[in-house]
Amino acid sequence: MNHDTVLTLEPNWSTFVPGDSVTFTCDMKEGENTDWEIRFIKDGRDYYHYGSGLTLNPLVTGDSGKYQCAGHHKINSHSKTSKPIYLTVSAEPPKARLTAGPSTISVGDSVRLSCSVDGSDGWKYEWFRQTSNTYVTPAADGDNREIRVSQGGVYACVGRRGEPAFDTQYSEYVTIKITYSNYVSVSLQLDWTQVIRGQITVRCEIQGGGDTQWVYDWETTSGQTITQRTYTNYWTVSAFSSGGYRCRGTNRQDSDSSTRWSEAAALTVSGAVLTFDPIRSRYFTGESVTFTCDMKDDKRTEWETRLIKDGEEIASYSGYRIKALSTEDSGRYQCFRVHRKTNHIKNSGTIELIVSDKPRASLTSDNTVIAAGGSVKLSCSVDGSDGWKYDWFRSAALIRTNTESNSIRITDGGNYYCRGGRGNPVYYTQNSVSVTVEERVSNKAAVKRQHDWPEIFKGEEITLTCEIQAGGDTEWEYEWTQGNVRRTADGRKLWVFTASGSSSGDYKCRGRQKTNSYSSTAWSDPLRLTVTDKAQCVLTASPSWLSPGASVALSCEVEPPSAGWRFYWYQTVPDGSHSSYRYELLPGSEHGTEQGSYMLDGHTHTAGYVCRAARGEPVYYTDYSKAAFVWSGDVDPSASLTVSPDIVQHFTRDSVSLSCEGNSTEWRVRRFPEGGFLSSCSYWTTSGSRCDIITSQSGSAVFWCESGSGHFSNSVNITVHDVGPGLILMSPVRPVTEGLSVSLSCKLKTGQKPSSVFFYHNEQLIQNDSRVELNISAVSKSHEGFYKCWSQGRESPQSWMAVNASKSSNGHIPVMLVVGLVCGVGLLLLLLLLLCRFRRSKGSCYIRPTHSGTVWTSNTTPSVSQNQNQPETGIYESVNDSENTGKDVSDVTYSVIELKSFEQNRRQHKPAESPVYSDLKIRPADDALLYVQVKHKDKRKRVKGKPCAAATDELLYSQVKPGTSFSSNAAM
């Protein structure tokens, strides 16, 4: 392929812009072009086939590419192609480039500016100038690629060509500045009003400026360069920074025309030394202080001095003195010194002066108590300050003065305080708060109480005594504490108070000498008091069921157990106006008894009793105990209870009617169930003096009447049985009088009587025939006891049948019988003594007293058996009297002989150590029995050995009975 074909481009530019025009010409260089078929190729593809020339007008960016031309000879079919030409059509217009000579010229000089467009030509150029007052103005026109300017400003150019005209981008801006020849100087103005605020003024002067309006440019020459422009010829700068300052002026109308920079004016800043005399960390009102600024300067007259407080001038000289500081003098102090010839400023910086109110010294001790022979360290200080010396006082007397040490040691108790002093003249603090130091003496204090009772109850009066051992003739005042709380007792040795719930705790006391209030004993060991709720009394009565004329033993116990009590005994009397009882003191109980037991002799009728206990001075009483009842079947004419049906045992759902009779119109029926509490018939239907009940639950209960006039009726025991064996015994509720007849029978749950019944008396079979009833035609005392029946494999519960002596058989025991009985008792006593002495000759002997009988309390289930008055163990001697005295058999005489001491001592016996007493008490009784009861009270310690035969646990009785016999063949 021949390449001598030439493709040309007109205009021959390397780069075109949209809108330009371009012409391609193809020269085949062989013959005429008309001999050839010519075509144009763009980017390897046929583009144009119409002649040897191609014009593109206007150009677009899509015309960019590689162009060639090719020819095919019409005659010889010869072909050839030109070399490629690359056409570039730029999407962005090109940017003009401006070059300049020196950018700063003097007034009257000029500078050459040149504009061009790289890689292309054919451009015409336009020039523009911009100042602070004009945005863009033409600087030149035409085809000038170069111009000369003598004005300052910001210049730029642009290229233009084609039709319509196409513009390049603007060139970069070039600033041309004009420098004036005016002389410029700068000065520093050190004015005190500015200096004390930390400022100075820098002033700029332009000579020959005429009417030119200037703006001023400022610049520092040291450290970090700072530039500033102002419209005034001065600039306010910091007085605390060293450095040089220079300035120049710029024409306000032509910001590119300015003077040269002035010479720099130097400012020197250094530190001054402000001192306080005296030097303190803190000052107080009334003290003096002197301020000194840079005393080391040799030529003080060349310097000006100012003392500043909180930004305000207070003195113009060094050595300023405040004679008496106040709190208003507190603040931040600073001094300045100025050397005007050298523009030198000295600044001390701020120092804070703190002035506080007059201080109070602080006194502390390592202990507030001086042990016997010991010492205590006192320390005095003034917080937040120093330079003090100390004075020490004891009870207003100066004991040490002007000590540099802030501590001393003391050996005497007292009230101490201190103060601090410093300076000349001496400035004193306020006196410290006093510290009391006590001196302990070796005497020991002890708390004692009046009664050594283990329990104390609310409401009791407590008396505590503070005793000081080996106190001698010293007069004391006393202090008391309960726990950690001080208690006032007015300095008395005795502390008397009433116990309350808050009285429990530990009590201590100490003594303080009256002649030296700072000398005292140590606190005593604590005495612990335990205060409990009000004490309660529990009363028991034994026996609970009486035989006629039997004795009743009452026992009263305080719960919780404690000592020191006296006991008061009362009989309950029904109160018709209330639902309760009133209490009447029993004989001999007016002043109370030391023992918690009381014996009722010849007791006959139902009665209730209460007790209470008392102790202390003034007297503290417990609450009354709950009532304990003693029941009797004997009928009192003033009040009697009848039961219908007159039987002891009942089935559930049986109806029972209880009726009260006597000399009263107000009645209530009382019920004391087994395992229950005392109640009234108000729970059931009542009609006048009668109470009707329907048995609903099994169990036993005692019933009796109480009249509004204050009488108790006889008591009855009623038991209710569920179906169980389905058989009950029908026996009388009330005691049967001797000589009368009685009939016992059995009853089935169905209400029928069984056909064949066996009867038992005290577990002995007494009737086993076909009779269904047990009939006794003439009841005697021997018929008393427990009865039950058996039928068809069923056994009823047993019931007690009591027998009372008939009134006709009662009589008084002859006097001779009493005398004989006393003699017999004396003989028996003598035998006992001889037996005991015989035992003592062989070995040790001790007597152990016990209590027999059933104990009954009102809040436990009562036993309703009516034989509890029978002695459980004992030795009986019976003498049958065949003669009827014809006197009331209810009269019974008791003789009680108490052996109060059987004392044994292995050493020689003194008469007072082993006394034997015999107390013979003749008591009236209500039965035809005569008992001799010997009691022994043993108060000595139990020793190892065998018990004496005469000192057993049993009681000794001598019984004399009238000539009533138990006939084994009595009618049944």
Describe the structure.
The structure is a single chain. This protein has 972 residues and is mostly beta strands. It folds into nine domains: 82 residues, Immunoglobulin-like (Sandwich), CATH 2.60.40.10; 83 residues, Immunoglobulin-like; 89 residues, Immunoglobulin-like, CATH 2.60.40.10; 85 residues, Immunoglobulins (Immunoglobulin-like), CATH 2.60.40.10; 79 residues, Immunoglobulins (Immunoglobulin-like); 73 residues; 96 residues, Immunoglobulin-like (Sandwich); 170 residues, Immunoglobulins (Immunoglobulin-like, Sandwich), CATH 2.60.40.10; and more. Helices cover 3% and strands 46% of the residues. It contains two helices and 87 strands. The strands form 22 sheets. Strands 20, 21, 23, 25, 29, 30, 32, 33 and 34 form a nine-stranded mixed β-sheet that branches. Strands 10, 12, 13, 15, 16, 17 and 24 form a seven-stranded mixed β-sheet that branches. Strand 32 and strand 33 form a beta hairpin. The relative contact order is 0.05. The C terminus is likely disordered. GO terms for molecular function: transmembrane signaling receptor activity. Keywords: Disulfide bond, Membrane, Signal, Transmembrane, Transmembrane helix.
